[in-house]
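Objective 1.3, modelling of assemblies. Example input:
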Amino acid sequence: MRRSMQRKIILDIINNSNEHLDAYGLYYAAREKLSRISLGTIYRNLKSLVDTGEIDVIYDGTDKLRYDKREDHQHFLCTKCHKIIDIYDLDFKKPTNYKDNKVVSYKIVLEGLCENCQKEE
Amino acid sequence: MRRSMQRKIILDIINNSNEHLDAYGLYYAAREKLSRISLGTIYRNLKSLVDTGEIDVIYDGTDKLRYDKREDHQHFLCTKCHKIIDIYDLDFKKPTNYKDNKVVSYKIVLEGLCENCQKEE
DNA sequence: TCCTAACTAGTAATGATTACTATTTAATTA
DNA sequence: TAATTAAATAGTAATCATTACTAGTTAGGA
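Predicted structure (C-alpha cells):
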C-alpha cells in the first residue's frame, strides 16, 4: 500500500476529529484540503483503512456508516438523534477467546437518549 | 399497530432462528409460509419491529443488516467470514446513565477469528 | 355486516457504495 | 536526476440494498 496524499488527508481528518463523520462528511472535509479529491477515493480508502485496522466503523442505526479513529474507547449512541458520544472510562476486560473463537477486539455501544433528546420528550 | 399475518410470520422466523438472517434471508424464509409476501413488506415490518424494540439489528461489516431476536445476549463476530455467534455468558453491568445521557440498553460485539477461519489461516 | 385506517403486493425510485478506465503518481532502480 | 511501473486517483457509470408509491386488501371496531 502506497502513502498517497489522499489517504493521508483522510486519515488525518479522522484522527483529528471527534465528530464520527460519514463518507460524505469526510468528502466535504477533505475537499477543503484537496478540492479535486473524488468520492470514490474517499470510499476506497475508508475501506482499506478499515481492513488494515487503522480506523473503525460505527453503525448508527441510519443507512450511513460512520468512521472513527482507532483508540481504546467506546460509544454512547442516542437512538433518537443518532448523536455519538465517546466513552473512555468504561470498565470491561476483553477475553482472549470465546469458546474456540479468537477474540481480537471488541465494541461496546451504550444506547439510549442523550441529554438534549431527554428534554424534548 | 395491527397484527397482520405477515408481521407475525416475520417475527416468528426471527424468534425461532439463531441464524441472524438478513432481509433477503427472511424474505426467502417467509415465502415458504406465504408465497406472495413482498420484499417491501419484509423491510417495512423489520423497520417497525426494530423501532418498537421487538427485534434487534446487527451490523456485520458487510453492506447488509442482519436481524435478531430481542433477548439478553451478546455476539461474537468473525471479521473474516462474518459468522455471528450468540454469547449468553458475558459479564457486564449496564450503567443507568453515562454522564447526563440515559442508557436504555447496550450491545457488545467481540470481534476476531472463528474456529474455522483460524484453521484456514 | 359495514366502515375505515392500517397494511400489503408489486413496482418504481432513491441513494449509499462499488466498479470501471484513462490518467497520474509514489517509490524503486539505473 | 531520469526512467520505469505498479498502485492510486478522478470522474463517471453501474450496482444493489433499501425506501417510496399506489391501487387494492384486510384487521378490528362499531
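The helical segments of chain B are 5-15, 23-31, 39-51, 115-120.
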